[in-house]
Design brief:
The protein is an all-beta fold. Strands 2-4-9-10-6-7 form a 6-stranded mixed beta sheet, with no helix packed on it. A 4-stranded mixed beta sheet has the order 1-3-5-8, with no helix packed on it. A hairpin with a 2-residue loop joins strand 9 and strand 10. It is elongated and about 70 Å long. The termini are far apart. About 20% of the residues are buried.
C-alpha cells in the first residue's frame, strides 16, 4: 500500500495506490515501463465529490485499458469513496482490469410539494426539485433540475408523483 496520494502520481509495479480526492481531482498514471503480468491497484480512500481519480495508460504504440465490455480507451475514472480497480499488464501497451469494484451511482431528488406543479397528459414536463435526499457521486443538480451521468453503464431511474387531496385529474 502506498502512502495516500493527493495529487498526480505515476504508479510502479505492484502498487496499491490509496487516493484522497478531498482536495481536488488528479491522475494516477500506470507504470511507463511495465513487464507482462505486472499489476497495479487504485482506490479512493477519502472522497471529495465531485472530485475524481483518472487512471491513465500513456504507453507507446496503441495504449488501451480493457474491461469486461472491451476496450475502454486510455483512461478509467474513479468517482466515489471505495471505488477500486486492479489492473494487469498484458503487453503491447494493454492493461486489463482484473477487478472492477466501482460503486453503483445513485441520486434521489424530491420536488417541493408546497409550490405545486402542473403535469399535462402526454406532454414532456420538467419537474422542479427542492431537495436532494441521497447522492453518492455528485449526480444531482437542483439548479438545473437534472442528474448527470458520469460514466457509461447501467443506471436505475425511478420517478414518482403525488397528487394533492381534492385534486382533479383530467386526460
Amino acid at each position: 500500500l502506498t502512502p495516500t496520494k493527493t495529487g498526480n502520481y505515476t504508479a510502479v509495479k505492484n502498487d496499491l495506490v490509496a487516493c484522497d480526492v478531498s482536495g481536488g481531482s488528479f491522475t494516477v498514471t500506470l507504470p511507463t515501463t511495465p513487464v507482462v503480468d505486472d499489476e497495479v491497484g487504485v482506490f479512493i480512500e477519502a472522497d471529495g465529490v465531485p472530485n475524481t481519480v483518472t487512471i491513465s495508460n500513456t504507453g507507446g504504440g496503441s495504449p488501451a485499458i480493457w474491461g469486461k465490455t472491451g476496450n475502454l480507451g486510455t483512461t478509467v475514472v474513479l468517482f466515489v469513496e471505495n471505488d477500486f480497480v486492479r489492473l494487469k499488464y498484458l503487453g503491447s501497451s494493454i492493461w486489463l482490469i482484473l477487478n472492477d469494484e466501482r460503486t453503483l451511482h445513485f441520486a434521489e431528488m424530491r420536488g417541493d410539494a408546497t409550490t405545486g406543479q402542473t403535469v399535462n397528459h402526454n406532454t414532456t414536463t420538467v419537474l422542479d426539485f427542492a431537495t436532494t435526499v441521497a447522492d453518492n457521486a455528485g449526480l444531482a443538480d437542483l439548479t438545473g433540475n437534472s442528474i448527470t451521468i458520469r460514466r457509461a453503464g447501467r443506471y436505475s431511474l425511478y420517478a414518482a408523483a403525488g397528487v394533492a387531496s381534492g385534486a382533479v385529474l383530467q386526460q
